[in-house]
Amino acid sequence: MKCSPPIFTISIVMQCLLLRPFAAAFSTHKFLSTSSKALRDGRSKFLFKKQFPSLSSSLASKTKLAMTAATQEELEPFKNNNNIDDQVLSCISGNGEIKVTACTIRNLVNDVMIQQTLTATPADALARSMACGLLISNGMQAEQTFQLTMACDGPIRNIVSIADGAGQVKGYVGNPGLGDMPISEAIGKGTVQVVKMHPDWPTPYNGVTAIEHGDVDRDVGIYLADSEQRPCALAAASKHTGILCTAAGGYLVEQLPGCTTETSAQVEENLSKLVTIDGTTTLPAGILLNAGTPLDICGTVLEGLDMKPLQQIFPKLVCGCSEERLFRAIRLLPRADVDDIIKNEEKVEARCDFCGKVYTMGPDEVAKKFEESTGDPSLDKDFKE
Questions:
Q1: What sign results for the dihedral spanned by CA atoms 295, 296, 298, 303?
Q2: Which whole-number Å values give the CA distances from 137 to 124, 216, 313, 322, in the listed order?
Q3: Phi, psi of 316 (to 5 degrees)
Q4: For residue 59, with 0-12 CB atoms within 10 Å meaning exposed, 13-18 middle and 19 or more buried, which class applies?
Q5: What is the pTM (predicted TM-score) of this model?
C-alpha cells in the first residue's frame, strides 16, 4: 500500500510504539567491521569455553546430580510426530550439566508469510530470527522479552523479532518481497542488536556485536559468546518450496554451571553426529524436513547423558497492535501535520509491520479522540491496553 509521506510517518511512529521500550536502546547505525580472523561457526561446537570452578571431592559428592534417563512412557507427551504442531522443547542431561532447547515452527512461519506476503529469502531470514528468539527466551519469565535486530546494509534492510518467555513471538523484515538470493547476500554487513526487557526493570539490557556470517543463527551464536560469554551451540534454519515453508526450527545447547570438560567434549561429539544426520548446509532444517522432531534433536545431543525433559511450550504469533496504538502514534505528531494528512487524504491510515493489519480513522473519529484523549502518549504507564 502506497502512503503519502505524512502517513508513512505515522506508520514509523506506530512501529516505534510496538517496539517500546526497545527502540531507544540503540540510537546509531554505525556498522562494526568484522574481524580479519577466520569466521567462527557455533552450530556444532561451543564458541565460548567457560572455566567453571572445580568443586572439592567432598562437596562434589554431596551436590552431584544423578537423574536417570526418562523412560519411553515419560517421553510420550513430548513426541510430536511429523512436527504437526509447532513446539519448543527443553531437556537436561542427567548430571545437570547441559540444557538443550529445540523447536519446530513451520506452521508459525507459514502464517507470518501469509500475513506479510513474504517471499522465500525474507521468510527464511525471519524464520531463523524468530527461532533464535524462541530458543533464547525459553526459561525466561513469561513477561520477559527478547528482541533481536539484524541491522544490516543488505537489500533485506533489517530483520526484527521479539519473543517472550511464554512462547509468544512476532517479527518483520524491511523488504518482504525480496527476490531469491543467498541469505548472506540479502543481509550483508551490520550489527546484531539484542534488547532484553522485563516490566519491572528500570532499564533494558542491551548488547551488540558485528555480523560475521550474515545468516542470522551463527551471528547470534557469536553474540552469545562475545557479548554474554555464554558457552552455547546454536543453529536455526528453514526450508521452502515456492511460497510454502516445509520445515523451520533450531536448537540451543547450553553448558550449565559445573559442566565438566568431559561432558562438553561428549556433547560436541554428539553435535557432530547431528550434522551428519542432517546432511545439509541448513542445520537442522534437514532433520525437521525428514520428520525429525525436537525430541529427536534433544535425544541426539544428549546421547549417553541420560536425557530428562524439562518443559514444552507451543509458540504462537502474537502482535500488540491496536487502534489505540495508532492514535497514540497520531498524538505524537504535531497537530498541524495531522490536520494536513486529514485535509489531503480525508483519513488517517497505517499498516502494522508485524501482522499486516491496516487501521483507518476518519476525520470525525480523529477529532473525537483528540477531545477525549488523556495522558502522555509517549508513556506506556499512562495506557493500559
A1: positive
A2: 20, 16, 12, 25
A3: -150, 155
A4: exposed
A5: 0.87
Give residue 383's pLDDT. Answer: 59
Question: Residue 56: its pLDDT value, please?
Answer: 44
Q: Which long-range contacts (CB under 8 A, 24 or more apart) does 362-371 make?
A: 366/327, 366/330, 366/338, 366/342, 369/327, 370/331, 370/335
Q: How far is CA 247 from the centre of its chain?
A: 16
| 101-154 pLDDT, tens digit each | 999 999 999 999 999 999 999 999 999 999 999 999 999 999 999 999 999 999
Dist. CA 305–CA 295, nearest whole Å: 14
255's grid cell: 553448558
**Which residues of the chain form beta strands (DSSP E)?**
87-92, 98-104, 145-152, 158-164, 168-173, 190-197, 205-210, 232-241, 244-255, 308-313, 316-317, 348-351, 358-361
Helix (H, G, I), strand (E, B) or coil at 93: coil
Burial of 84: CB neighbours in 10 Å, binned 0-12, 13-18, 19+: exposed
Grid cell of 233 as nine digits: 551451540
Q: Which residues pair with 240 in a beta bridge?
A: 245
